[in-house]
Every structure is written in structure tokens, then in C-alpha cells.
Write a structure and sequence with these properties.
411 residues, DNA polymerase, domain 1, hpI Integrase, Chain A, 4-stranded antiparallel sheet, 11 strands
Amino acid sequence: MAINFKSAKPTRHPGVLRLPDGRLLVRAAVRQPDGKILTQRKLMPEGATESEAVQAVLELKAAIKAPTPTPHPLDTCQTVQQYCERWLEVRSGRLSPTTITTYTEAINDRILPRLGWMACQDVTRQVIEAWVVWVQSAVQPKTRSQVRDGKTIVSPNSRAGQPYTQDTMRKWWRCLKTIMGDMAADLDVKNPVLRVRQPERPELPLVREQRTLDTDRTGDLLAAARTHYPQHFACIATMTMCGMRAGEVFALKWDAVDFEAGTITVRRSVSKREIRETTKTKAKRVVPMHPELIRILKAHREAQVAAQHAGLKTGLLFPNDDGEIRLPSNMKKVWPRLAQLIGSEVKVGSQVLRRSLNTNLVMAGVDRITTRAILGHTSEAMTQRYAGIGDDAKKDAVSKAGPKLKVVDSD
């Protein structure tokens, strides 16, 4: 005989209902992290008391809350491609869109073409060593593609035929190392990346970090920006004097600027054409403003109000003409022109200005802890790496710190 659960009447105990025939029905509902509500119900046996029913409700809720165990991928014969697909699916829930893109590109372009067909149990240290050699010999293609607004845009690659940079190879290596480590733990196999050196190219040193502007050149840059690009002057001044990443500058809102305290709180960033309430390092920081920057930003604010700029509604410091997010790519024509105006051989850009402030702070004797706090570096090594100390500065330091030798004429 079918039971009509709709005929059950609630009792004084939440989740406990009584059927017309006197038997008790219990029901438990739990909201899941994704917003869905899972429910379970159970018909109590004849003679069950309300106290027993209340206990049954608690047991049902506990059963719903307990996560369903994910089948452990003990099949070591599965291919690396199958494991990577599952690995990325599991990881995606905890990663930012930018990081997901980085992992996806590394997997599709550098891991699967070489290792995807292999069984996980067959990936040995020798296989990884061969992968490293393959990566080190790779050269850039004639074209490169970017996904914008869901469309793939293909453009010529100015570095076609050139080897990839050390940074790019390190990015691939970090992805492979993480996946292989997780695979070893999941499948209870040996970790094939142990005792394997990461890809490196000694004949191509990391000279990019040495491309910086000294204080005189940064002053020339600001003067040129004020004259030739007044609409971008406040933005460039902020990059120059605060050393923020481009995504952090274009995500700045006026609620982050405290003129009275003379500080800017960096807590947002632009990613995938959207403002995220976090930074690249997942931590906010407070950056002091130079007195001149305070005057510049106050004038910039007054100009926005006087013109009733559309950006006043969004609260952005440096919006586009429509008041929406200005993307870092919007400045790509400005930087080469500024470099030309100041006669700089250095390819000027937001990263160069960031590295320049790093270098100039170190040269001014600012301690590394303070420099890290201003620039938002995650480690001492990062601050040291981006300190582009030039040869002239090194010679000057040696001459100042060296011993004072007394020259004695020989007989």
C-alpha cells in the first residue's frame, strides 16, 4: 500500500511528522555549498517514539553533510591525459581564472603532446629528463593566439623562432612538478620529477630584470607624460611612484585612497577584464604616497568632478572614456612613444616602472623588508631579483666602500 507523505502532519519537533495511521516520518534538509538543498526522509517503524525520530533526523543530516568519497584513481594504467583532465577539474574550484588559464595552456601545449599518451605508471625520471631537453630546445611559433571575449585572436609573433625565456620554462616546470607530485601521491607510485633539474638556459641570462630607469630618467618620463599624454599622466605617476602592477593600478577605486593619511590600499586587481577583490599575491598592502603624487591625484580628482566624468559612478581612478575598466593593453601605444621622447633604450612599461622603483629604493638605502612591503613581493629573492643594479652604480658603491689605500712610491 502506497504511503501518502503529503498527508503527514508536523509535530512539535522540527523534521518529525506524523502520518494519519500514527507512524512517524522524519525528514532532513541540508543546503550544499553550491546552493542546492539535499533532502532525505525515512519512515520510522511502528511503535517508534518521538525521541527516536528526533535522533533519526540528526543521523540523516549527518549523512547528508558527510562528503561523498571521491573514487581514488588507483588505476595506474590510466594515461597522463586522463589524470590531467581529472586533476584540473578538481583543482579549478580553488584557483583564479588566470591561474586556471596558465595551467590549461601548460598542460595542453607542453605536457600532453609529450606525455599525454603514456600510462601514469610508465612515467619515469628518464622520461622527465627527456621532457626537459625537449622544452629547452623549443622555439616560439610564427603566430600566437589570445582569447578575448570568447574569441580566439591570432596575431604575428615578433619573437618567432627564438627560444622561450627562462621564466616561461619555469612556469611549465612548476605545473608539471605539481601534477607529477599529486599523481605520485594519488596512485602510490614514485615521483618521477625527484632529482631532476628544472629547464634552464645558462647562455640566455635573465637580463630583463636589469632594464630599469634611474631617478633622473623617471623624472624625464613624468615630464614627457605630463606634456604629451596629460590624460594618462596621473596613472603613469601612480605607477612610477608606487610601483604597482598594471592590473592593480587600473583596479584602483577612490575608496582605497586616503589623502589625509597619504596612503593607497592595494586590495583589488584586474583579471580577465573584471575587477577581482584580491591581488596577485592574495594579500592587500598599504602603499605610502609621495607628496607630489598626492597633489597630482587631488588635481586628477578635481578634473573628474569638474567634467562630471562617467568614471565617478564606478569610483575608478583611471577608467576609460565610458567610465568602465581601462585595460593595461590600452597603454601599449603610449609606452614606446614615451621611451622615444626621453631617449631611452629601455622598453618602457608598467613592469619597468615597478622594477625601477624597486631598484631606486634599494639604491637609496631602503631596507629590503620595507621595499617588499611597498612592492608586494612575496619573498626576499623576488626583491633581489628585480633590483637592476647597473655597472655604474656598482662601481660607485665599490669606490665608496673600498679601503683607502696609501700609495707608496717605489725606490
